[in-house]
Amino acid sequence: MTLPTPELRTERLRLRPFTDADAAPLYALQSDAHVLRYWDSPPWTDPARFESFLATCRRIEEEGSGARLAVERVSDGSFIGWCGLFHWNPDFRSASLCYVFDSAAWGNGYATETAHAVLRWAYDTLDLNRVQAETDTRNVGSARVLEKLGFVREGTLREDCVVNGDVSDSWVFGLLRRDWDGTRRPAAESES
Length: 192
Known about the structure:
alpha+beta
């Protein structure tokens, strides 16, 4: 079963499938060591990684296991990050959420706004019951985004990743359908 990557809109953002035109801004994002300081894979050092990323986007769509969406500002069409839904399991009605944004976009509520749009799609269109997200315990900004969306911190995965050579812990967050209030739009509060 395929899972077509949707095009979603918010007041300020457009979420859409990746295109070849996203190669340079995605490389700039994924090669930024500061942005990826809590990410579970190292910054990119080869611009050709975009082709692999795009191939994975197509593969997970064809397999029906997830979707990756480029995020751009409506006001100027600038690429500011991406958001993904992966490990989609229609039998369990569950999936995992991830996102990454350019540091110049931080503090404007874009991550919260983006994730809210993806969650609305996940619950309304995919009929999910549970969405999970994980974040490095040092990434307080990402934890705040998840909490604003209604996620509950369910536990800690001890020493589950090695980030930049350091063993790190991750928090596991979950959001159940019964706790999701898709009608409530999160405020565009400060986030990091």
